[in-house]
Amino acid sequence: MLRRLLVDHRDTLLPPDLDFGFVYNNEYFHRRLKEEFLRTLRTQKPFIYIKIPTEHFELFGFKEIDSPEVRAWKIAVLTILSQTDFLDVKGHLHFDTGIGIICLDSDYTVLQKLRKSILRNLKEAGLFAVLRQQVHKPVFKAMIFTGESENQRSQTEAMVKSFNHSNRGFFHLAPLTYKDIKPNQWNRATINFLKRSIDIVASSLALVVLLPLLFVIGILVKISDPKGPAIFKQVRVGREGKEFTMYKFRSMYVDAEERLEKLRDLNETTGPIFKMKDDPRIFNFGRVIRKYSLDELPQLVNIIRGDMAIVGPRPPLPSEVEQYESWHRMRLSVKPGLTCHWQVSGRSNIGFEDQVRLDNKYIRHGGIKTDMDLIRKTFKAVFKGDGAY
Length: 389
Known about the structure:
- This protein is of the alpha/beta class.
- The chain is 46% helix and 13% strand.
- It is built from 14 helices and 10 strands.
- The chain has a 6-stranded mixed β-sheet with strand order 1-3-4-2-5-6, with helices on both faces. A two-stranded antiparallel sheet has the order 7-8. Strands 9-10 form a two-stranded parallel ribbon.
């Protein structure tokens, strides 16, 4: 499609024999995109992903194939194709809707240079104002991935905002996330719909069936520590960093948060999370419901509300996310859940780094069949009660 729209570009100031270079098919291109994403997580060497969609061709209202608007659009596209490095990766977007370019080891300054080149070529062709007058939205979509740690993300977000404010007309820049590199968005949307339907139906049925048990647990929590509520509410971080209020049965005394700082040195796990087998903040009945994960049952409400899913990485605290390295943040690319790989593989006996690796494994390879498998294994792990504290 893009090749067809760009034929007959001999009237531009660009070389008439310009070649696109090798353009990969969609499947291989998105495999390379995923590889670059994972590589950047390790190396922190950023890359830019540019999309040249053909959908804009219709959105701009280009009527005549030889109009000034079409020639200006061709110059803009061909400028990008001619100035990308020969090592950069080009490939077809889904359903042949355009071309994608992965600019390796590049940051937003690449887009600034391309914009200047486009403006220069349009000016020399006497078409400087044509494309800008026609465009009511940016022509090209661009995404940047830096692989930086959580506490550096605000700098990137500020840079992206500043770039978009000063570079209107050609590029719209946004941070790239893991969901942007999933190979088939239609299939993904179908899977997400099925998963969401299962979550709603299963959680609603579970709440109805377990209502008497929930009522009894609530009473026993109040008896164990009358000073506080039966349900504990806590802010957690969900998909794409969005915060929500998570519910669980309270298993600790009401002054647990105040006592935490005195126990920091006794932490028995790694990373930003705190775990302690004989945590003195937990009352006796609290230990029982934590061992068998009964304290998590109120999160069925979170699932129905859409904050969580049955299967997915456990939702972290905002204070934990602030300490995340770049590769840790990948676990925030999906909805958090009640259970996932590490909950059925040792639970709290597994260190933080291994927990994240298992969560990322689910994100890369998980599906409906994986969910069913993990739910089955969760029942077994919960009844055994191993590794929960």
